[in-house]
Amino acid sequence: MTNMKRVALHEKPRLGIMGGTFDPIHYGHLVAAEMARGEFDLSKVLFIPSGTPPHKIRRDVSAANLRYEMVELAIKDNPAFDLSPLEIERRGLSYTVETLRILRRTWPEYELYFITGTDALLEIFSWREAEEILTMIQFIGAARPGFDASDFLLKVQQEHPETLGRIHYLEVPALAISSTDIRARVRNKQPIRYLLPEPVRLFLQQHGLYDAE
Ligand code: NAP
Description:
Number of strands: 6
Order of helices and strands: HEHEHEHHEHHEHEHH
Oligomer: single chain
Number of helices: 10
CATH superfamily: HUPs
Number of domains: 1
Distance between the termini: 52 Å
Mean pLDDT: 89
Low-confidence stretches: 1-8
Bound molecules: NADP nicotinamide-adenine-dinucleotide phosphate
Strand content: 15-25%
Largest sheet: 6 strands, parallel
């Protein structure tokens, strides 16, 4: 019954693409993905850790295989979540436009929803082929509590009316958690338990991640 209702609501099944550096993945990301899945009726959410993020060449980002393994540990108990090595296996910088082209070829029957942080989305006009990206798929900006997106939305709608209805916002209270804060806590020997799944906490401890960033 539920499936019949869903088919009637929108023509194509929807696939969520969770793009991020995930250094490390934490409960904010997981809650954002699960909320987006429910809110936008996504059949599945595919996590794609960035390989070499184009905007982070100067900051030391943890090795892609370690970030990938942490995502794998974090999502394994959710059958609606999946993981793709697409960006970490590709040579060179991880441009989202290239990833989306591959995904559209791989999942032609799905409508794609790219989920990422609103802070990242605010920079979208600096991304490679930004205007192309904005007309290719739908975007969901996962916002930290209290984030006001109205100025950005207004600007986008005025300057790029073709993107109308393609950028959505989702307030995610759990995004009070941040990877930057977790890294700083590890460095300062403060507790991080309950901010991220326990297997991920143990993994980063075993690998000495962020100890001396
Ligand atoms: P970032 O600059 O590290 O993150 C910006 C903010 O968004 C941070 O507050 C971050 O929180 C949050 N965030 C990032 N991913 C999120 C997610 N999936 N859900 C909820 N919050 C998230 O951004 P990034 O992680 O490197 O990049 C985000 C995505 O945009 C990636 O897929 C990346 O490849 C893409 N991107 C593409 C280009 C391009 O094509 N030129 C340029 C920039 C970014 P945390 O630190 O807690 O994660």
